[in-house]
Amino acid sequence: MLRQGLLMARGLCQLMSNKLSDSLHRNIMKHLNGNTRSGYAWTSLQNIRAVTMSPWPFTPSQPRDYSLPNASWSSEMQRLYEHYNNMCEMETEGGKKIKGAWRRLPSYNRSLKYATGGQCLSKLLQGKARIFTRNIEEQGAGFEYVVFINKQEKTCVCVFQAGHLLEGPPGHVHGGAIATIIDSVTGTHATYLSGPVMTANLTINYRSPIPLGSVVLVHSSLDKTEGRKTFLSCQVTNTDGSKMHTEATGLFVSIGVGHLLGL
Ligand SMILES: CCCCCCCCCCCC(=O)SCCNC(=O)CCNC(=O)[C@H](O)C(C)(C)COP(=O)(O)OP(=O)(O)OC[C@H]1O[C@@H](n2cnc3c(N)ncnc32)[C@H](O)[C@@H]1OP(=O)(O)O
C-alpha cells in the first residue's frame, strides 16, 4: 500500500515536471524565434558539425540539416548523393555495417544559433544572420549541395545543383555563385584539415559555363600546408568528369577565435 502510494506520487511529480519543462521549452523557443538573445547554442564549423549547448532542462530543437535530400533534387543529384553516401558506410559479408572512408558533412543555415552571455559571443551574434549558401528558403531555387570528405585521402567532393536564382549569363550560373560554392567547399575542407581558417586568396579560372539546374561535382584536394597556411586546389566538372567547368586554388590562413572578434 505504502509502496503503491510512493509510486503514484513519483509518477505525479514526473508528470508535473515534464509539463513544466514542456511549457518552459515552448516559451523559450517562442522567445528565440523572435530573435532575442536567450539560451545558448552554437553551431560551429559551418558544414562540419553542430555543437549544441543548452542549460538544463531546455532541450533546443534540432536544426534542419540542409545536406539531406529534398524534393527539388534531380535524379542525378540523388544518384550521386547515394553513390557517396554508400561509401560512408559499408556492409561486410556478414551483414555488419562498418565505417567507410567517406563522411557526409551535415549543413545548417546558421553558424551561431542561439546565444546569451559572454561579451565576445554577443559581439559575434546577429539574430538574423544566415549562412550565405543556405539563406534561400525555396527548395531547389539556390544552392543545393552536399559535401563528402575523405579523411585518408585528404580530399573532398561536393555534389552541387544550381537553382534558377543563381543565374548570371542567360541560362547559366553566375560566376559569383560559382566562386561562392568553391569558397564554401574549399573553406570547409581547409577547416576540416586545419581547424578555423579564413580565405586569404582564391584564384579562379572559368573554363566553360555551367547550365542552370545542372548537377556538377566540386572536387577539393590538399596541395600543402606551411605553418598557418593551407593550400588547396579545386575543380568543378560535370558529373562524369568529361568537362572542366572551373579550376581554382585557394589559400586559407589559420586564425584564432579572437581574430573574428577583432581582439
Ligand atoms: C569558425 C570558422 C568556420 C569556417 C567555416 C568554413 C566554411 C566557410 C568558408 C567561407 C570562408 C570565407 O569566406 S572567409 C571570408 C573572406 N576572407 C576574409 O574576409 C579574410 C580577410 N583577411 C584576413 O582576415 C587576414 O588577412 C587573414 C586572416 C587572411 C590573414 O591575416 P593574419 O592572421 O594577420 O596573417 P598574416 O600574418 O597576414 O598572414 C599569414 C601568412 O599568410 C600569408 N598571406 C596572407 N594573406 C595572403 C594572401 N592574400 N596571399 C598570399 N599570402 C598571404 C602571409 O604572407 C603570411 O605568410 P608567412 O609570412 O607566414 O609565410
UniProtKB/TrEMBL annotation:
It is found in: Cell projection, Ruffle membrane; Cytoplasm; Mitochondrion inner membrane; Mitochondrion intermembrane space. It is a peripheral membrane protein. Residues 171-243 form the Thioesterase domain. GO terms for biological process: apoptotic process; fatty acid metabolic process. It is an enzyme of class 3 (hydrolase). Pfam families: 4HBT. Its EC number is 3.1.2.2. The keyword Membrane applies. Keywords: Apoptosis, Cell membrane, Cell projection, Cytoplasm, Fatty acid metabolism, Hydrolase, Lipid metabolism, Membrane, Mitochondrion, Mitochondrion inner membrane, Transit peptide. The keyword Oxidoreductase does not apply. InterPro entries: HotDog_dom_sf, THEM4/THEM5_acyl-CoA_thioest, Thioestr_dom. It comes from the Eukaryota. It catalyses: (9Z)-octadecenoyl-CoA + H2O = (9Z)-octadecenoate + CoA + H(+); octanoyl-CoA + H2O = octanoate + CoA + H(+); (5Z,8Z,11Z,14Z)-eicosatetraenoyl-CoA + H2O = (5Z,8Z,11Z,14Z)-eicosatetraenoate + CoA + H(+); dodecanoyl-CoA + H2O = dodecanoate + CoA + H(+). One of its GO terms (cellular component) is mitochondrial inner membrane. One of its GO terms (molecular function) is hydrolase activity. SUPFAM superfamilies: Thioesterase/thiol ester dehydrase-isomerase. Belongs to the THEM4/THEM5 thioesterase family. This is Acyl-coenzyme A thioesterase THEM4. It comes from Albula goreensis.
